[in-house]
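Fig. S4 source data, part A: sequence.
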Amino acid sequence: MGERRWGHSHPGSSRQDGGESEAGAGTVLMTGLAVLALLSVAVVVLLLQASSAASKAATAADLSALAAADATRGLAPGNPCVVAGAVAELHGARVTECGIGTTGTGTALIRVSVDPGGLLPDATGAARAGPPP
């Protein structure tokens, strides 16, 4: 008679529900924490993907602008915008704007776009190359 059973109220207890009001609370808490952890990992993955795409776009823009400037000044054969497009394609980007001589003689202003895939919008990069202004 003097024995206590866990999970059951005993005489004089202030609980009205038989002592089981917290049953399953740990499961709900752990489920919530697991969902929060998964969402955090997803956000980190998206940020890393965006950072990688931005870096790729900047590199492609720099190299494309240098190649176009070389073609503009006659140091390399070909049409500067076609050369810039070929270099951008080698780096997983596409040229969205090609301006030759817009910022001075022998210069190239190139804008590129990289598709990071997934939910993110395109990453863009821009570069100017040529002799100093």
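Fig. S4 source data, part B ends here. The radius of gyration is 31 Å.
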